[in-house]
Palmitoyltransferase
Amino acid sequence: MKARRGIAKERPESEDSVTTRNEALWRKIFFNWLITDPCLLIDEHKEDAKHLKNYQVQNQEGLKYVFFCGGRFKTIKQKPINVLTGVLLVAPAVLFWIFDAKWLCDHISPSLVVIFTYIWFLSFSYFVNASTSDPGTLPRNVHLPYKIDDESTKAPEEYFSTVSLPYKDEHTPVTVRYCSTCHIWRPPRTSHCSVCNSCIAALDHHCIFLNNCVGQRNHSVFLWFLLSTVTCCILLAILSFVQIFHYLMVSNSEIKTFRESITKHPVAFLLAIYSLLGLVYPWMLLLCHLFLTSFNVTTREYLSNYQTRGTVYSLFTSFNPNSTIKSLYLNWLGKPNGVSLIPMRDSYTRGDMRFEKVNPLQSFTV
Ligand SMILES: [Zn+2]
Ligand SMILES: [Zn+2]
């Protein structure tokens, strides 16, 4: 240790400053751009708030977001199950391309490999989009009842009420409530996700496999992810079975038995089993969401209605267009994703209340 200190003292100052500058540059690239946990940067921002982007200034209480590549992608600080989902998607495709694609090109048709690859890329891009995009997070601190430094003032009485808006009939009420965490009046169909600790517009559910909420801005992407994944699994199973049972279709095959076939094509056999097992959960989820979207009802609304109003009215809300085709069209194709209400890559303006830490209102804490 002593020798090291000695060497450090002998270094010319300019060399030290270059090293420090390089370290600062790498630190800036790594923590301020590649992987940014805003909670770790708060102290740095107190000193220098110039040239900051919104994603670097997330001072709000209890937020768990982590941003990647300059705020382009985000996830939350939870068990990274979305990484596991990504691996489960990528691994079979890589095995297919390495071991089975050439056989299919030689014995059946290269177009089958192209079709599989196309559908797989669709599935994977939908997964990345649904997993890392903004699901419709609403900005915080928009409806503060008083100056934030005045902690003695109680929140107005109406902040405790559930306000009913005009609706079709008594069985399909539209209500709005104040969110005491986000300090906003939630628009209709908005709910607070306890995992993300944010209010999400048209929240469907928090998906642990995506590690993200499914809401207004990524609901249709999520639906297309399910459909493309199910299609991909079915196609992979068919292609694998074609390879395994090809010996039955040709008269002069060297392979005579099923055992010989799976010994010759072990990866195809593995992929056939994998794709059939992997099909079960996305298929069930797809059927469930086909059913819900045919009524234009979110998972959360359905479960909440089921508890409070029973089975008869659980599928009917004021947002139901009374047409299955219309509902399906709205959810799968026609619903605009809308713009992000918190553009993370925009420049930060000092004092922007959306990113400030505000204590819970006094009346809500009592
Ligand atoms: Zn909220
Ligand atoms: Zn969530």
Remarks:
- The chain has twelve helices and eleven strands.
- The CA atoms of residues 33 and 70 lie 4 Å apart.
